[in-house]
Design a protein that fits this description.
The chain is mainly alpha-helical. The chain has 19 helices and 5 strands. It has helices at 17-22, 37-42, 45-61, 73-84, 97-110, 140-150, 190-203, 208-211, 224-229, 234-238, 245-266, 288-299, 305-317, 322-335, 340-350, 356-367, 382-389, 394-399, 415-429; strands at 3-7, 29-35, 66-70, 89-91, 115-117.
Length: 430
């Protein structure tokens, strides 16, 4: 009997355990993707462009044998499984709150037909690394030690020829892969992911530890969108990491990715609420003036060059350097006294690599309200941050060419005064 392989955040054929599981029998495998209107409505145009381009690359890798349909998965997956007489539906596990709810609904709708999960988007799946008493880690450093001791499997030996693919030509309900026509600054899909990774290992990995905090340098891997959509698995990447300083610094960032996924899995409420509920009562600004400042922040009109450069980079290409993400987040939360959720929602709308676990808990780290958070009294000075990490101003000039013009806006707030106000508000809570 055939099986159904339902792709989601795993848009690849190499290193894909669910593919091997689906192909374990002697029947054909139907490769399927469901365009879920709920996810399309919550993603910005660049993230959708990446998704659709990655689907086209996946379809090419399958020789055209990718069945794409549109609708709610709890309706479409059972219908497709019935149409082909599938013996099982195979997936990679999804640990996001939305993904878990969706998969529970699909499993219920399938009835006696099994929904079998193999693997996940992470080196170590959420829930696997715990304290000796079985409780979850709340602090990264001990998690990191236990994570390294736990280890991970070698890449799965899967590829385009791992299954006999069922031709979807006669399966009812097919949909076209959309094309919004949005330009991406880097190509999408499994083919591009492997090319990008090979280029970084050859040209950037050795210097990564020293250059990753410099937005004026090409010092990062730019693999975040590929990891978001699973066009490459981190196992594939770690197989190329040696013992060097740059490699170990990169591995630590992959550990952070696993940590935040584990936190969200254990505390799904933390997607939009403070993980540390003690901060729920801290006053934040609202009203017309707050909204005007939020718009200035979004548009890169704050009068602080490094902040404006980051926000204009985000608007321009749907990506922002991680050091600058921290700077602009600190400015929103601690200089403008706005809710971190406002910034997190804007990032998810704009970022190609918008990932719920990384994004939300990165924002809470800056706000001081999450697990392992930065101390509330750590408030980034946007001027000194710019001087330190963009010393000759080349990053700012690239994205804010008007920085020296007489029409460039004056600072919308006084950092020294707002720092004192932020400290006052935090002190009242703590």
């Amino acid at each position: 009997m055939p099986t159904l392989l339902w792709f989601r955040r795993d848009l690849r054929l190499r290193d894909l355990p669910s593919l091997l599981a689906a192909a374990a029998g002697d029947g054909e495998v139907l490769a399927c993707y469901v365009l879920d209107p709920r996810l399309e409505a919550s993603a910005g145009p660049r993230r959708l462009q990446y998704l659709y381009d990655a689907l086209r690359d996946l379809r090419d890798g399958l020789g055209g044998k990718l069945f794409v349909t549109r609708g709610r998965p709890d309706e479409r997956i059972p219908a497709i499984a019935k149409a082909i007489g599938a013996s099982a539906v195979h997936i990679s596990a999804d640990h996001t709150p939305f993904g878990r709810r969706r998969d529970d609904a699909v499993a219920t709708a399938l009835g006696d037909l099994p929904l079998e999960a193999s693997g996940s988007p992470y080196l170590v799946s959420p829930g696997r690394v715990t304290k000796p008493d079985g409780s979850p880690y709340k602090v990264f450093t001990p998690f990191h030690r236990a994570w390294r001791e736990h280890g991970w499997r070698a890449p799965a030996a899967s590829g385009p020829t791992s299954a006999r693919w069922l031709d979807p030509v006669d399966v009812p309900g097919a949909a076209q892969i959309p094309d919004p026509g949005v330009e991406l600054d880097l190509p999408a899909g499994e083919t591009a992911a492997h090319e990008q990774w090979k280029s970084f290992v050859a040209n950037g990995l050795d210097a990564y530890a020293d250059e990753r905090n410099r937005p004026d340098l090409n010092g990062t891997s730019r693999m975040s969108a590929h990891l978001k959509f699973g066009t490459i698995h981190p196992r594939t990447m770690t197989a190329d990491l040696g013992r060097g300083k740059g490699a170990q610094a990169y591995l630590r960032e992959l550990a952070f990715r696993d940590f935040y996924a584990a936190v969200l899995d254990e505390w799904p409420r933390s997607a939009w609420w403070n993980w540390n509920s003690a901060f729920d009562g801290m006053p934040v600004d609202d009203g017309p003036e707050a909204r005007e400042r939020f718009e200035a922040w979004k548009e890169g009109r704050t009068g602080y060059p490094i902040v404006d450069a980051g926000m204009r980079q985000l608007a321009g290409i749907g990506w922002m350097h991680n050091r600058v993400r921290m700077i602009v987040a600190s400015f929103l939360v601690k200089d403008l006294h706005l809710p971190w959720q406002w910034g997190a929602r804007w990032f998810l709308d704009q970022l190609v690599d918008g990932d719920m676990a990384n994004n939300q808990h990165g924002w809470q780290w800056v706000a001081g309200t999450g697990t392992d958070a930065a101390p509330f009294f750590r408030i980034f000075n946007p001027t000194t941050q710019g001087e330190k990490f963009d010393p000759d101003g080349s990053y700012v000039r690239r994205w804010v060419p008007d920085v020296d013009d007489e029409n460039y806006p004056a600072p919308i707030v006084d950092h020294a005064a707002e720092r004192k106000e932020a400290l006052r508000r935090y002190a009242d809570i703590t």
